[in-house]
């Protein structure tokens, strides 16, 4: 277990994303909101937990078939786009207070996704080797 990741800014951000996504999911479920709202919040919760476990257990270093930070950036950007659309609909329609609260929390989650994507973009260096040996001269 990588305890340093939990103390890092990226680790705290992943935990915050997970918690906000979970609370958003609970708001949508409790309010009886449209299934699309609930599905998006549920998928975001599960995917964020999986990425958190991936980095926490250092599986990204063991499973090298995919460049995980880039996959995480794509996840964050796509999630932000979906959250923008769905949460704006939830806020505009606001069938009840639970849907409105879920929409507002979803917009907060959108900001967390964008901050996560920016932090990951700063971390990635595409010209750096990905842990493989240097090419022969």
- Poorly predicted segments: none
SS-derived structural category: mainly alpha
Question: Strand percentage, roughly?
Answer: under 5%
Instruction: Tell me the count of domains.
Output: 2
* Large-scale geometry: elongated
Through-space gap between termini: 37 Å
Question: What is the number of helices?
Answer: 6
Order of helices and strands: HHHHHH
| Fraction of helical residues | over 70%
Number of strands: 0
Mean pLDDT, rounded to whole units?
A: 89
Outline the biggest β-sheet. none
Provide the gyration radius in Å. Answer: 17 Å
Structural write-up:
The protein has helices at 3-7, 9-31, 35-56, 59-62, 68-93, 97-123. Helix 2 packs antiparallel against helix 6 (97-123). The chain is built from 6 helices and no strands. The mean pLDDT is 89. The longest helix is centred in the last third of the chain and has 27 residues, at 97-123. The protein has 137 residues and is an all-alpha fold. It folds into 2 domains: 1-62, no CATH class; 68-136. Helices cover 78% and strands 0% of the residues. It starts with a helix and ends in a 14-residue tail after the last helix. This is CKLF factor.
Question: Brief description of this entry?
Answer:
With 137 residues, this protein is mostly helical.
Properties at a glance:
137 residues; mainly alpha; 2 domains
Ordered list of secondary-structure elements with their pairings:
Layout: H1 3-7, H2 9-31, H3 35-56, H4 59-62, H5 68-93, H6 97-123
Helix pairs in contact: 2-3, 2-6, 3-5, 5-6
């Amino acid at each position: 277990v990588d305890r340093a990741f939990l103390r890092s800014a990226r680790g705290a951000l992943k935990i915050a994303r997970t918690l906000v996504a979970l609370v958003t999911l609970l708001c949508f479920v409790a309010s009886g909101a449209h299934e699309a709202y609930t599905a998006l919040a549920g998928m975001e919760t599960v995917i964020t937990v999986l990425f958190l476990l991936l980095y926490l257990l250092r599986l990204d270093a063991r499973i090298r078939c995919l460049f995980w930070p880039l996959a995480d950036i794509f996840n964050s950007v796509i999630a932000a786009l979906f959250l923008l659309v769905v949460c704006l609909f939830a806020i505009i329609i606001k069938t009840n207070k639970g849907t409105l609260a879920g929409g507002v929390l979803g917009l907060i989650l959108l900001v967390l996704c964008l901050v996560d994507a920016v932090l990951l973009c700063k971390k990635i260096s595409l010209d750096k080797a990905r842990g493989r040996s240097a090419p022969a001269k």
